[in-house]
Amino acid sequence: MVLRKAKHTIQEFALIRAIERRFARGASRLVRGIGDDAAVIAASPPMWWHLTTDLLAEGVHFDLNTASPKSVGYRAAMANLSDIAAMGAVPRYLLTSLAIPKTLKSAHIYELYEGLMKACRLHGVRLIGGDTSASKAGLFLSITLIGTTAARRALFRHGAHVGDRIYVTGTLGDSLAGLQLLTGGKTPRSTRRKRARLSQSQRHFLVNRHLHPTARLAEGQWLNNARLATAAIDLSDGLSGDLRHICEESRVGAELDLGKIPISTACRAYAERHRLQPAQLALTGGEDYELLFTVPSKKQSTIERQARARGYRVTCIGTIRPHRFGIQMTSSDGTRRPIPMTSYEHFR
To answer: Could you say which of 12, 91, 242, 320 has the lowest number of CB atoms within 10 Å?
Structure first.
């Protein structure tokens, strides 16, 4: 989708009133939402409130030439919902702030909110406020999401222990493959005719996994409420980096079995087509928004049995080791080597 220069000027306060009418709805504990200097929520103890915020910049996090405003809004919401999922929390309220360039029309902003609220309505999240500004350097979107858990009941990154098993939900590497398909891929010309093309359904699956990811909220709440996980994080930056976060916060090491990383059929086909290692897509690619978590070895059979009963896909991909072990991966031939830091990192 290519956006052309807007033919009329956006009116800030009219836009805010229209957004309030179209997207903001009341909630049982909401005292005051859009329309005042701050939103007011009536809290009921004993409860923990979880707050996460995310800033997305055009040209860094999204490209309006390859993603519609609706897809940008949907992905932005899912990124924050995934943070709440990693805490084992229930999402409640949303605040959004936009810096809007002159190239966008009101219709584009409404479309962005349609995607944003489509993701939020799936989980009962209410829009309660935000801010708007003009931008001279592209579209900027900031989201703050508020969730809750029972007091002293949450998942953190710092709880992993030596001997814990390392698990992930879903499949990894799909979003990166989908992004590369949207931006043209990197297949050498000499190999294009020799290798089978991806099917239309495989292309659609990978692109959809990038544009419309799924935050694993039900899985996070299950792990938290059943007290099955010792630590958790969402996979937003890539397996190599996010596993490192758990290890650093928990002061442990880790060993991954590359052969056990769950890779979808479509992602494997994409990797074969582009002469890539499927596991490398999983290690490098972010924005799958799956959960990476650790489980005591004595609960391994319990978690796998309960996951099957609930229809959740979880896969054991490694073991937590002592800190001195470092963060290593084992190949199918038994070769062990350190996991390189290949995840996305701003300013690097």
So the answer is: 12
Long-range contacts from 299-308, C-beta under 8 angstroms, 24+ separation: 299/228, 300/165, 302/228, 303/167, 303/228, 306/222, 306/226, 306/228
How many Cα atoms within 13 Å fall on the side-chain side of residue 261?
A: 27
Q: Which amino acid is at 2?
A: V
One digit per residue, the tens of pLDDT, for the chain of length 348 reads 444 444 456 665 577 677 777 776 666 667 666 655 555 667 777 788 888 888 899 988 889 988 899 999 999 999 999 999 999 999 999 999 999 999 899 999 999 999 999 999 999 999 999 999 999 989 999 999 999 998 888 999 999 999 999 999 999 999 999 999 998 855 444 344 445 689 999 999 999 999 999 999 999 999 999 999 999 999 998 999 999 999 999 999 999 999 999 999 999 999 999 999 999 999 988 889 999 999 999 999 999 999 999 999 999 999 999 999 999 999 988 899 999 877 655 545
Instruction: Write down how long the chain is.
Output: 348
CB 80 within 8 A of CB 14: no
Instruction: Compute the half-sphere exposure of residue 296: CA atoms within 13 Å on the CB side of its CA.
Output: 7
Token duo for residue 249: 């916060």
Radius of gyration of the chain (CA): 21
How far is 32 from 27, CA to CA, in rounded Å?
10
pTM of the model: 0.86
CATH of 12-150, one of 1.20.1250.20, 1.10.540.10, 3.30.1330.10, 3.90.79.10: 3.30.1330.10
Q: Which among 316, 326, 176, 294 has a CA at the least distance from the CA of 237?
A: 176
Residue boundaries of the structural domains of the chain: 12-150, 165-338
Q: Rounded to whole angstroms, how far apart are CA atoms 222 and 308?
A: 13
Q: Could you tell me which CATH number the domain at 165-338 has?
A: 3.90.650.10
